[in-house]
Design goal:
mainly alpha; 398 residues
């Protein structure tokens, strides 16, 4: 792509967005591996959901800690290192013989993903200069990674079996190189976007005022509701679509792909809608849409299920990048912590609930296990109602 299309100021956010895709492909890959683990290793639904839990539990705990660390000390080296860790864990998941080792390597992947996001969100905030649209492009990269995960896993594992999983490390190697290039672009004198993370320049300009912990807590609660819905569907939508449509593995992989790809479209739309209508109205509308969309996924049989999967994806992903900027504006003095929570604890907490979904599916049915997810976006909408738009500063850092 020519320099006319990517200016020096836009280059860091573009590199960060593509690097984000190379990291988040491993969050999507864990769910994409579930049908293969069930078929090749005869795992129960509960055992398979335990794999999802392993990828998210430690990530949920440590990501805010990494956020707090990056608030005190810029740690740009975390970006390439954590990318490699995220890829290595998933790459080894298919070649370990024991369930315990599979849990361990998937947990390593989760920690790698956790270490990446707070520092990446801090760097993206600096590069975007507070722009909703630019942060939307950064979030879009992660969503495209999610969307590519089932296709990547199917291409590798469906043809070579779980034993071919080491090939899944390739995006991590590419992502580490992209992260290093993004850091160099931020450090370059020609980069007008923001001072480089970790450089001796003054930190990014912050809105005046105190951190609003109450609003941040309500926002995080809403994101947690969204997370349970998204992770629950991610873990089981491939199996559920196969069961409800009668389309076999292809229908299941397509449903997971739609769930992830719709998020890519929703994230870009979210930034543009927020510019026109405001962040909080758009976020609230999205949660309201999600109630109806998830109900359609659970209750409507046949191929029409895929339409409701797409609507669910839009409802869950339109507010995705807006969650990040809202959280950072509610905690202007702790943007690393805010990024760690909005992209980490509150996003991956859904994995903690996934074993309960799997156990209910084993005891009753997948439909019965997914039905409670209908109510959670409504709970999130209630939590969002008292929130007010936080103060935020437009324009370049001073």
């Amino acid at each position: 792509m020519s320099n006319r299309l990517i200016t020096p100021a836009a280059r860091p956010i573009a590199l960060l967005a593509v690097g984000h895709a190379c990291v988040d492909v491993y969050q999507g890959a864990v769910a994409a591996l579930v049908p293969f683990l069930v078929s090749e290793r005869a795992y129960t639904y509960a055992a398979a959901s335990g794999i999802v839990l392993a990828a998210t539990l430690l990530s949920s705990v440590v990501q805010p800690l990494f956020g707090a660390l990056t608030d005190r000390w810029p740690l740009p080296w975390l970006l390439p290192v954590s990318t490699l860790a995220g890829g290595a864990g998933v790459a080894l998941a298919g070649v370990t013989d024991s369930y315990g080792l599979t849990l361990a390597v998937v947990a390593v992947s989760g920690i790698g993903v956790a270490a990446y996001h707070p520092e990446a969100a801090r760097a993206a905030r600096a590069a975007s200069r507070g722009s909703h649209v630019a942060m939307g492009w950064f979030s879009l990269g992660g969503n495209l990674g999610f969307a590519a995960a089932p296709l990547m896993v199917a291409a590798v594992v469906a043809t070579g079996g779980l034993g071919a999983s080491p090939l899944l490390v390739v995006p991590a190697v590419a992502g580490a190189a992209l992260c290093a290039a993004a850091l160099r672009a931020l450090a370059a004198p020609s980069s007008a976007a923001a001072p480089a993370p970790g450089a001796g320049a003054a930190p990014a300009r912050r809105p005046a005022g105190r951190d609003d912990w109450r609003s941040f807590a309500l926002l995080s609660g809403a994101i947690a509701c969204r997370s349970v819905v998204f992770v629950g569907l991610s873990a089981f939508i491939a199996l559920y679509a196969r069961e409800r449509t009668g389309g076999g593995d292809a229908a299941g992989a397509f449903a997971l792909f739609v769930l992830y790809l719709g998020g890519a479209v929703g994230t870009v739309a979210g930034g543009r809608l927020a510019t026109r209508f405001g962040r909080l109205p758009v976020v609230r509308w999205s949660y309201g849409l999600s109630v109806l969309a998830v109900a359609g996924v659970v209750l409507v049989p046949g191929p029409l299920l895929h339409l409701f999967v797409a609507l669910t994806s839009a409802g869950l992903y339109v507010p995705f990048s807006l969650h990040v900027t809202l959280g950072q504006d509610y905690l202007p003095r702790r943007v690393g912590t805010a990024g760690g929570v909005t992209l980490g604890l509150a996003v991956s907490v859904g994995g903690i609930a996934s074993p309960a979904v799997g156990a209910l599916a084993d005891a009753a049915s997948l439909q019965a296990a997914l039905a409670p997810l209908i109510a959670l976006p409504a709970v999130g909408w209630v939590l969002l109602r008292p929130l007010k738009e936080p103060a935020r500063l437009e324009g370049p850092a001073g």
